[in-house]
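Input sequence (425 aa), recorded before submission:
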Amino acid sequence: MDTNLVISLVVLLLVVVGFVSGKFRLGLVGMAGAILLNLTGVLTFDQTFAYLSNGNIVMIAGMFVMSGALAKTSLVSKMRDGLLKKAGKGSTIVWIYLIACMVMIQFILPTPLIGMMLPFMAVLDKDSKVKPSQILLPGTMVAFMMQGFAPFGIGTSFWGMFNGYLEAGGTDLRLDILDYAKVLAVPAVIALVYLAVYGWKRFPAQDIDAEMLGGGKNQAGTLSKNQETLVYVIFALVVLGMVFSNVIPFDINVLPAVGVVIMMFLNILDLNDVKNNINLDVCFMIVGIQAVATALQTTGAGTVIANTLMTILGGNPSGIVVLIAFYFTGALLTQFMSNIATMNIFCPLAVITALSQGLDPRAFCLAIAAGCNAAMLTPNASPSTAVAFGAGHYKLKDVLKVNLPLWIIYGAAVMFMANLLYPIG
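Predicted structure, token format:
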């Protein structure tokens, strides 16, 4: 086995152990893993630190600062009074938040979504029956599990990728643009009900640090009425730019930075606001995690794992057994590396395997893609999950108690729906 591949897997294990222990800051663990990969020669210097200028990092940092500006307005207190007055029961707030995340994910990517929803956690103060930590991660989870449902935006991208996998496999079979929605519908509803009725109550009831909201101490009311209006307008324009990213002529990741610069020229924010509101722990964690994911992908660790899986299955397993093996291996691996990278490893391999055994490869594409989007078990499952973990101060063991049962139930529902749509026996 290639030395770099072995080193990558060992570093991955060390990072997971570091996260599980809860003894170290997440950013420290992530960056330590990245630096170790560089020192051992698995990654070059440029590969190791490329994500310091990655679009996700720039966007996340910008959203933290913009959240700080929003926290300086009276919006938070108005939202708290209005929402908590109308939603006397904690469960109502949970349903509203989770459904909002499921709807918004159809228009924007998960990372900007969690960035935009983060400041609104402040409506849940000490008088609320729901604490921010009880719905922050569940909101991220339902968003991921619903991602690509609508036949536009990211949903269209998924559809194109699926048919690309099929074409590369040498088959004339193709997926309809609504097939992914048909597979996701039931599992997504199951996830929503599970989290809204049961799951959120099992997360630790604690406040999010003010700095995690990008606002430092509560500064509401420090801006004039005109300044507040400007903050609302700029924030709304940034959000609209992200929603309609397909029609703007530049990368949407720069939009929050543009908003921050404008606010600084308008004296709404100063340099100290920018420094205080950027959460470096979360940013460093994402940089480190992305470097580890790069190592896993470039060394071929995912392919080795998939090939080993098929060797273990051996003989002539049934279509369902093969689907289960591919699904859960991909869904597990995506907890530690990019979901797109995992999808690009497992879907083509599954298509070839299915065709060689006379099985419908479309069921494999749909199920594996849904599994790779179920980024809910670890902080390195995705940048947005990392943000939620960092802001909510979640311990991995507490998250697993709630999410692991849902991960299994969701997976079973996904495979059932995929097999129902394109039977494989």
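Checked by second reader. The two ends are 35 Å apart (CA to CA).
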